[in-house]
Amino acid sequence: MLQALVFFSIVLLVVGPIHWYLWKRMVRDTTRPGRARKIGTAILFALVALLLGAFILPRAIGAKASTFVPLAGYLWLAVLFYLLLVLLILELPRALANRSLRRRTATPSATATPSATETTIVAETTIVAESVGLTKVSEVAGQSGESKPVIAPIAGQVGRSSDRDGDGGGGGVGASAVAAEAESRRLFIARGAAIFAGLTATGITAYGAKTALSGPVVKRIQIPLAKLPRSMDGYRIALASDIHLGPLTGVEHTRRIVNALNGMDADIVAIVGDLVDGSVAELADEAAPLRDLRSRNGAYFVTGNHEYFSGAEEWVAEVERLGLRALRNERLAIHGLDLAGVNDVSGASDGPGKGPDFARTLDGRDTSRPVVLLAHQPVQAHEASRHGVDLQLSGHTHGGQLVPFNLIAALQQPVISGLGDVDGTKVYVTNGAGYWGPPVRVGAPPDVTLVELRAP
Predict the structure, then answer these.
(1) Within a 10 A sphere around the Cβ of 209, how many other Cβ atoms?
(2) Which end of the chain has fewer CB atoms < 10 Å from its terminal CB, N or C?
(3) Secondary structure string (H, E, C) spanning the chain
(4) If pLDDT is split at 50, 70 and 90, which confidence band does 108 have?
């Protein structure tokens, strides 16, 4: 309960300011006070509620009973992210455009202001005309000493200039016109930026949704291992991670992945965590196709962090019932190769002995044999390298899932996607076959990988 409260508090602290910024740029700056602004504000409040509902409803009434709200809420989350990104990028050109506009409309032209001499002449002419009350031409000397002809008004039509022109004269009308033009141009800039940001964010999200929902691509990579015996050259591992079974994915998602893995004609199948987002009771049907996995030397599973949100013990029992072997801080020999698996780091929160135990898994083995370690998170390679692991197979990162989150993930994980090296241990990280949160992938398509081990 405490973890849930902390999580939702963080969500509110992040979501609130972001939506306020979006309201400012997409609603307030693009509208005048009135009906349009009220409608825009109401829509944004509804989207906030939808996003919060995506997190709350599955936990409150069950994942399958609340399918639409999480789907819509998570899609809005993706649009929200790219709206924020594009609007922030547009801040500088927007500021420059508004600055240029302010310079152009700061002061009226100097030619619109009458000179002191002309003002004196007009004032004196008015006095003469009012005293005579007739239409006549008078010559009134101005301050300059020159005489200028002035036509006095007709009797009965004489009035003070302020009566004819208003208290502010013609200058007030001019200033209002300038202000109106400036406001119109400001709205044009704001609306242009908002439309561009909206179309860009929507287009990116639509592309990302198509990518995420089209199924995983099959990658192939050859990785040389110095200790691999020649008899095992070309040993094939079908690797999948982050399948994230859930009510939004459906059973077809599982079947597609199983078919892709079976098509690799692998020696072993390895699923390295984050298989599910829900309990066994909710997702047993979605997991059922895993029983159809085929390989020459078996299918293996290690836990990811999401298993510990969904009932790790129940899921370990379920995958073993479906024919996979769960490696829980265990090691086994397959021909001239050691295959090992450790629990995810999140397991430590479940109690003593539930987290990863590298010493138990790897100590006392024959170090002349190569060892391949299944571990959900790439960061576990730091510990693996201290135990002489030759190759670690991982997932967890989703390749960033939504660019530029790959840059943020790199602050925590030493390898985000593909093959890397961590303290002398080779680490291969798959993008994962599914998605978490938004059914959207941008710059990190889902994949399953055929890893082919090569002897020297």
Answers:
(1) 18
(2) N
(3) CHHHHHHHHHHHHHHHHHHHHHHHHHHHCCCCCCHHHHHHHHHHHHHHHHHHHHHHHHHHHCCHHHCHHHHHHHHHHHHHHHHHHHHHHHHHHHHHHHHHHHHHCCCCCHHHCCCHHHHHHHHHHHHHHHHHCCCCEEEEECCCCCEEEEECCCCCCCCCHHHHHCCCCHHHHHHHHHHHHHHHHHHHHHHHHHHHHHHHHHHHHHHHHHHHHCCCEEEEEEEECCCCCHHHCCEEEEEECCCCECCCCHHHHHHHHHHHHHCCCCCEEEEECCCECCCHHHHHHHHHHHHHCCCCCCEEEECCCCHHHHCHHHHHHHHHHCCCEECCCEEEEECCEEEEECCCHHHHHHCCCCCCCHHHHHCCCCCCCCEEEECCCHHHHHHHHCCCCCEEEECCCHHHCECCHHHHHCCCCCCCCEEEEECCEEEEECCCCCCCCCCCCECCCCEEEEEEEECC
(4) low
Angle ∠(404,410,411) on CA atoms, nearest 5: 110
- Domain 217-454: CATH superfamily, name plus number: Metallo-dependent phosphatases (3.60.21.10)
> How remote is the C-alpha of 258 from its chain's centroid?
29
Tens digit of each residue's pLDDT (9 = 90 or more) over 77-104: 999 999 999 999 999 999 998 888 888 7
Output the pTM of the full model. 0.81
Q: State how far the Cα of 214 lies from the Cα of 446, in Å rounded to an integer.
A: 9
**CB contact at 8 A, 54 and 42:** no
Pairs from 247-253 (Cβ < 8 Å, separation ≥ 24): 247/63, 247/64, 247/67, 247/278, 247/282, 247/283, 247/286, 248/67, 248/70, 248/71, 248/439, 249/286, 249/434, 250/286, 251/285, 251/286, 251/288, 251/289, 253/215, 253/286, 253/434
CA distance 344 to 316: 13
**122 — pLDDT class (breaks 50, 70, 90):** very low
Cβ 153 vs Cβ 163: under 8 Å: no
* Residue range(s) occupied by CATH 3.60.21.10 in the chain: 217-454
